[in-house]
Amino acid sequence: MRFGVIGCGPMARHHAAVIRGLDHQIDTVCTTGDSDRRRRFMDDFQVDRACDRVEDLLAMDRAAVEAVLVVTPWDRTADIAEQVLAAGVPSLIEKPPATSSRRLRDWLDRPTPLGERTLIGRNRRFYEFLPEVRQALRDETLLSVEGSFPDPLDGELSSSPAWVPTMRLLWRTSHPLDLLVHLLGDLHVERMYRSGPRDDGSFSAYNGLLVATDTDVPVHLQIHFDAPSRHRLALHFTDRIYELSPLETMTVYHGMDVADATREHPIRRYSPHVEISREADLTYKPGLRGQLEEFIATCVHGEPRGVGCTLADTERVTRLCEAIAGSD
């Protein structure tokens, strides 16, 4: 296949490595003006053509550009995404495609809905061990879920223009929240404690209880930005715990190992027994290869596999972020 890529930053390079690694081509890169970074991108990924305007890319013959990848800064993505969606070209758009659920609903509610040939970049859905988690959800009884997501607040976020209070959640924490929605279905906020108010109207911490709408399974949520902690998603079944920590590693615990007290250590020690341990493939940025394969099958060949994140899915996650932030 021949792709057009809008953007040439670090994430675009991750996607380009997968495109080239799977023997596809990047026909055109589109950025605002020539730059050393664009020229390096073209050299590194054997791209022959560049353009400065999205309109020029979308006007190209479909034999030259069969699909479009949108990888642009978050505060510039929505207008570009709307152009690409309206053109009807198969598109893979990095999150967030828009910064409000209202705009996403507008796209979905049009007489001819936008996004029917589009997936949103949610690569964590494609970690190789996720089918085992989904199988456990079908076969076993889920009792509760824990989610701890201590995302960092780096300079890119703190200096960004057009700040909105939910952006910390949309830009950082929406990945694990999307994973929760993908695995459990719709979630609603039962109770939320928001701590550490900031000048922009957001908070440093969100602690509370989400509930899976279809099953009433509780999700104990802890989001502490910049906390000295680690990401952890734990699904508690009747006799097993499936833990993703970091999210790229799955550990299944079954049973307990007990070390009796000794003279040297006069305390009985309990530790969960590791039954299985799996790690996501690190050949490329984890999940991107499976996501590209799903995109081609779903949006180009019309053979959906049901794993990729649709525009409707991302509207649900954006709405959840707004509810957690208290801005819905």
Structure notes:
Helix content is 33%, strand content 29%. Helix 5 runs antiparallel to helix 10 and helix 8 packs across helix 10. It has 2 domains: 123 residues, 3-Layer(aba) Sandwich (Rossmann fold); 171 residues, 2-Layer Sandwich (Dihydrodipicolinate Reductase, domain 2), CATH 3.30.360.10. With 328 residues, it is α/β, with parallel strands linked by helices.
| Global structural class | alpha/beta
What gross morphology would you assign?
globular
Oligomer: single chain
Instruction: Write the CATH architecture name of the largest domain.
Output: 2-Layer Sandwich
> What's the CATH topology name of the largest domain?
Dihydrodipicolinate Reductase, domain 2
Q: Which radius of gyration do the C-alpha atoms yield?
A: 21 Å
DSSP E strands, number = 14
Mean pLDDT metric? 93
Give the H and E element order.
EHEHEHEHEHEHEHHEEEEEEEHH
Please estimate the helix content.
Answer: 25-40%
**Strand arrangement across the biggest beta sheet:** 8-9-10-7-11-12-13-14
Number of domains: 2
Instruction: Report the β-strand fraction as a percent range.
Output: 25-35%
User: Can you identify the CATH class of the largest domain?
Assistant: Alpha Beta
Poorly predicted parts = none
Fourth-level CATH superfamily of the largest domain: Dihydrodipicolinate Reductase, domain 2
The largest β sheet comes out as: 8 strands, mixed
Number of helices: 10
Report how far apart the termini are: 40 Å
Summarize the structure.
The chain is α/β, with parallel strands linked by helices. It is built from 10 helices and 14 strands.
